[in-house]
Amino acid sequence: MRVAVVGIGCTKLGEHWMRSLRDLSTEAGALALKDAGIDGKDIQSLYIGNMSAGRFIGQEHLGALAVDQAGLNPIPATRCESACASGALALRKAYLSILSGEYDIVMAGGAEKMTDIKGSGAIATLMGAGDQEWESSVGLTFVGLYALMAKAYMDKYKLTREELSLVPVKNHKHGLSNPYAQFNYEITIDDVLKSPLIADPLRLLDCSPITDGAAAVILASEKVAKKFKNPVWILGSGQASDTLALHNRKSLTEIPATQIAARKAYEKAELKPDDIDIAEVHDCFSIAEILSYEDLGFSEKGRGKELLLSKDVMIGGKIPINTDGGLKMGHPVGATGIKQIVEVVKQLRGEALNQVKNAKVGLAHNIGGSGASCLVHILGRE
Amino acid sequence: MVYQSVPLFWRLKKPKYNLTGTKCIKCKNVYFPPRNLCPNCRRSGDIQEFQFSGSGKILSYTIIRTPPEGFEHYIPYAIAIIRLDEGTNITGQVVGDIERIGTGKRVRSVFRKMHENGSDGLIHYGLKFEMID
Amino acid sequence: MSVGIVGYGAYIPKFRISVDEISRVWKADPETIRNGLLVEEKSVPDKDEDTITISVEAGKNALLRAGINPQDVGAVYIGSESHPYTVKPSGTVVADALNLGPELMVADFEFACKAGTAAIQCCFALVKSGEIKYGLAIGADCAQSKPGDALEYTAAAGGAAYIIGKDPLAILEGTYSYTTDTSDFWRREGADYPSHGARFTGKPAYFKHVTASTNELLNKLSMKPSDFSHVVFHMPNGKFPLKAAKLLGISKEQLELGMVVTKIGNCYSGSSLLGLSRILDHAKPGERILLTSYGSGAGSDSFSFLVTDKILERVNLAKKTDFYIDRKENIDYGTYVRLRKKLKGG
Which of A123, A248, A252 minimises the CB distance to B60? Predict the structure, then answer.
């Protein structure tokens, strides 16, 4: 039995001063229902990914909040949390709930409202994705975690600061005319190098922003999906965990959770990295995108930068990555995993803004924290 | 800000003040921070207290310039992943001239203020690391 | 069995600000100030240092020299006028950080700059009477001073720790104190900076108590100034101890080893104790040391120490006072006010 994505919706990503989390989640859900052409009453269960509403807006019990606001009581509603991979986790939970035979039509969404507290508070909250007792407490920030990896990677594989800058330059270019993106301007390597240092060696333009936003997809069982006009099939889903703290990992220059989750997804889909036509990867920081090329099998260890230098990861290249601009264009943490699926589905339907020619298979990659959790999904037209 | 809890910091005093961790007698792995369950042997392990010396070397480092709430007074400060001599890693602040920090440098622990909870809250103390010349 | 110092240790933060730099900002003449105070620069604590962290580092050095089981320490007394809390003792944090106790007596001491020596007196009495095996007494401070005030040139940071017990490296032959209610320098609770009586801090305060206490000790122990190889007084600046020495018939040479104020300023409760630690670093067995501290408010504690040969096997077991004096990094006034939190909201 297979599961397909039959509806997608996403809010604009940005600083939504006039909108609360409940406004964003309801909007995304409504857009997905409209796209699917079904009524809310057809949804049998809801999964919502959210990392830290408790600390961002003092709100827990998000499953209840989402279905209440959508007028969908009394369906079961579940909040899924895996730090920045909460969205992909919600997708997987929804997917497994249909595979179990329990449901036929389920909504998987993600939402995060990050701007109701000041920046330094958001930075502190995001460190909930790391080890509270032994990383956050010494003053380490989320950028700091990836900076530690960047430093180790740059030393080991001789990646230059200029080469690292190619990632945000590419993603800004991809997001240039994306109406959902938080930013619509191009940047140069020089702009990246001149932007302020946040945690050496990472600079402001290496980092995804603080964003409000929500996204939703509707999943259907095979027999129900066949009734929809453009189902996109989930061919494989993989999930893996690793140590919470970066200092306990086996290596600072790779993310094993990505490797394992990807392997599981490829195995289930009976596909290889070469078969992927377009991928949305987790570029929370520039270095994370380079690591993902290697961990997902698109390039060999230590050689990720070659894909940037050869432009293979750009639109028109062999393996376009983050065709909507990725997390650099907005990272409402709990929603990102679902937002990635929205772009992959658009690509496979042939409806994407930066359409990849003849895209048949797409991959979405979502990391939690500094690599303590990871989910990889592979989707296909057939 | 650093999550505020009197019982939490009190409970973690021994590792935070004295760098006391644990060791699994069965598989010989040492753990810092201390773990009550050996992740290697799980329930078949034999966990006991283990005292780290505080000496180690820097594996990687960063300089934090945009601080989380509560650390504004300290920027810029260096944070490193340090390989302790006994064979496990720790994340710690490195004090001293941040211009001189480098991968591979040897460090030893020093007792410092970690964080203050405002002007009328508790002061949290703990161990940072200084480079040995 | 004689009781005295079994282990000792110093700690001085590494930052320094010079008299020249402070006088540059306040448009004073640096040479006049340097010559008037006989101080060149003073130590400044880092953002994450305070009396507790200084006490822990000095305590670690003292334990290294003493070579005792930390669990045998029966009392911990920290003397300071800059305890981080008004209510919550520094001693408990220091005890836990040094792995002492929990079967332990602890209380914090305050008596301006002589709180550390008062702590030593208490430990001495507890050990001598057999109540405890070892006592840890620490004098440490991160002194605050009003911007532009004369004391800003000298109010410094540092501390020294002394473990008192039997079979010592320096026998405590006797200790005597002289105390009166004299308000030469004080700070009310909640006040950011202390107030002082300017010239009143001299004759009626420092000199009266230092000379009276020293003379009391000499009389009671039937000793004379020339019995001592080394002498250290509390050092609010470099001039006062020289004048006190003259009044007591003590020579400049006897003061030399302990005169740390010129390079690090006045470490308040750490002042005379850091002078003592430097003397011990260089002392030879058989030499006698006289220490008289001074605390505003006011009082002086005097001690006579007789160095034993145990000093030779213990002195090199931990970093010496000169290591901390010589390890330094000069900062400017802006960095200084940032570190000392003299900026409103900073």
Answer: A252
pLDDT at A15 over 60: yes
Beta bridge partners of B89: B83
Strand pairing partners for C163? C7, C136
The span from the CA of B66 to the CA of C275, in Å, is 42
Q: Do B97 and C46 touch (CB under 8 A)?
A: no
Helix axes A161-175, A142-157, angle to 10 degrees: 120
CA atoms within 13 A on the CB side of A248: 20
Question: Cβ separation of A121 and B1 shorter than 8 Å?
Answer: yes
Cβ(C135)–Cβ(C126) below 8 Å: yes
Confidence band (pLDDT; 50, 70, 90) for A103? very high
Asked if C85 is an interface residue toward chain B (Cβ–Cβ < 8 A), one would say yes
Q: Which residue of B has its CA nearest to C14?
A: B96
- Nearest C-alpha of chain B: how many angstroms from C91? 13
- What pLDDT is recorded for position C198? 81
What pLDDT shows up at residue A13? Answer: 98
Taking residues C3-18, what's their average pLDDT?
98
Nearest CA in chain C to B51: C99
Question: B-side interface with A, Cβ within 8 Å?
Answer: 1-3, 8, 12, 33, 59-72, 74, 77, 79-81, 88-93, 103, 114-115, 124, 126, 128
ipTM of the complex in this document: 0.92
Token output for B45 = 């392990």
The residues, ordered by sequence, that sit 6+ positions from A218 with a Cβ below 8 Å of its Cβ are A5, A6, A7, A8, A32, A33, A35, A36, A38, A43, A105, A106, A107, A108
User: What integer pLDDT is reported at residue B118 of this predicted model?
Assistant: 81
| CA pair distance A268, A2, nearest whole angstrom | 11
Nearest by CB to B125, which of C60, C97, C346? C97
CA-to-CA distance for B34 and B15, rounded, in angstroms? 7
What is the mean pLDDT of the segment spanning C78-96?
Answer: 97
Query: What is the rounded average pLDDT of the residues C201-227?
Result: 95
Q: Using an 8 Å CB-CB cutoff, list chain C residues near B125.
A: 52-53, 93, 97
The distance of B41 to chain C (nearest Cα, Å) reads 30
Q: DSSP letters of C22-79?
A: HHHHHT--HHHHHHHHT--EEEE--TT--HHHHHHHHHHHHHHHHT--GGGEEEEEEE
Does the N-terminal peptide bond of residue A209 adopt cis geometry, omega within 30 degrees of 0?
Answer: no
Distance from CA of C113 to the nearest CA of B (A): 23
| Prediction pTM value | 0.91
Distance CA C73, CA C146 (A): 38
Question: Among all residues of chain A, which has the CA nearest to that of B103?
Answer: A152
B-chain CB neighbours of C47 within 8 Å are 73-74, 113
pLDDT confidence of B70, banded at 50, 70, 90? confident
From the list A120, A152, A248, the residue facing B69 with the nearest CB is A120
Q: Which band of pLDDT confidence, cut at 50, 70 and 90, is reported for residue C250?
A: very high
Tokens, residue B100:
């001189």
Residue B4 in this model has a pLDDT that exceeds 90: no
Distance of CA A17 to the CA centre of its chain: 23
Contact A123 B69 (CB under 8 A): yes
What structural domains and CATH numbers belong to chain C?
3-339 (3.40.47.10)
| pLDDT attached to residue B2 | 62
Q: What percent of chain C has pLDDT over 90?
A: 93
| Residue C199 vs residue A369, higher pLDDT | A369
Mark yes or no for CB contact B2/A247 under 8 Å: no
For residue C73, pLDDT over 90 is answered with: yes
pLDDT of C9 higher than 70: yes
- For residue B90, the distance in angstroms to the closest alpha carbon of chain C comes to 19
- Residue A360 has a pLDDT of 98
Give the tokens for residue A199.
């945690």
